[in-house]
Amino acid sequence: MSDCESRPRTLVEKIIDAHTITMRPGRSLIYLDRIITADTSRPIYQLLESSGHRVRRPNQTLFIPDHYTPSRGMSPLDAADPESWRAIVETQDYSSREGLQMFPMGDPRRGIQHTVSIEHGFALPGLTVAATDSHTLTQGAVGAIALSISADMVHALATQTLWLKIPGQMRIVLEGRCKPGVTAKDVALLLLARLGPRGAAGMAVEYCGSHVRALGIGGRMTLCNLATELGARAAIIAPDDITYDALAGATFAPKDAAWDQFRAERLQLRSDEDASWSRSVTLDVGEVAPMVSWGTSPAQAVPVTGHVPDPRNEPDPLRRSKMTEALSYMGLVPGTEIRDLQIDQVFIGSCANGHIQDLKEAAAILKGRRVRVPTLVVPGSGHVGAEAEALGLVDTFRAAGAVWGESGCSMCNSMNGDIVRPGLRCASTSNRNHMGRQGPGSRTHLVSPAMAAAAAVAGRFHDIRDLSELP
Question: Would the keyword Amino-acid biosynthesis be found if you checked this record's keyword annotation (predicted)?
Fold first, then answer.
């Protein structure tokens, strides 16, 4: 037995060890089981081609256009501009020539890459997955190590390997039960508010505890997704019956007896009880309230019953400066009650909150009500969209006056033409709120799907724990 196998290890360490080809001080060359490319991969493809290389394992590489894909339809006329459509077409053509696995435009399975990867079993327990998107960590929700890489993608496509700096190990223990109206998004925002945007910088985060075990796949995806905003290198949740039940029969998952064997071989995919952690944090989720971000970082968030903070009360000069800058950009006055903030627009969707459970929660608020502000609802995938149709959720959204869009990243990153105009305030279920994220001059407030739906109805933030005063 090797030294790494004899010592107590975390789940992440076990998976890295199982994929290590060779080591150098502080780094491991690991084998990648799966790679994902997208319509943003044109520079990567160009570098790969100009270097004389080809994709080494086309069957283990999946192309999913999602960033530039229009919400209004699937034709060139629906695209934000000709260049956006060209990016889709050129990356799609290159992927086809290389023989990649593909969910192209028009394919009902297409959607946001992280959502689609989990739905179709491209990410599986114990596998290593790499993509260039910063929220690739989402796929750790099913027990995979999912890594966001940039220029290293050329090396990854050409060799099916990656040089990985060994991350520190961090455990976030979530215990207890959330109160009604509180979701995984609120838990994630509170963690960010308490730990800060570098609270897990460079670390591999494992979420565990009774709250995590009770979450469905959608809630687990939200937690792993927002770990990116903590600065994490990876995020993971140990697979359990909920995981395997969700993945059984998926497109890229083993089938029948092979699936039973795959599952049996992964019974030990969990951290050893006496594994060593660089940092450990525990939170009683019963303490969490519905959260609203007020600034230009997801970590700048407070309960909906709170108020805009005053930088003068912040002793740290750097944080005080950032708070002042954020308040100026957001057009906010310290002391203003969060529930007094008027909303101009609402976006429900993204890889953080585009799962079917997210849409159910939003629809429950909107049922029998009408929105007061423009509201766009975009499913995380074609599969989610079809399920929402079958459940009558789409009818609920449309009856409320919301617009239903085609699956994709949409207004989360504003790359497909879905934007928030300068100076307007948007309640958004996405994961980032930095300056200009949803369009030049846009002002983004991050919330849960139910909170976003309530804001759409009230025209301001509303505490969803009390719906008696919601119109």
Answer: yes
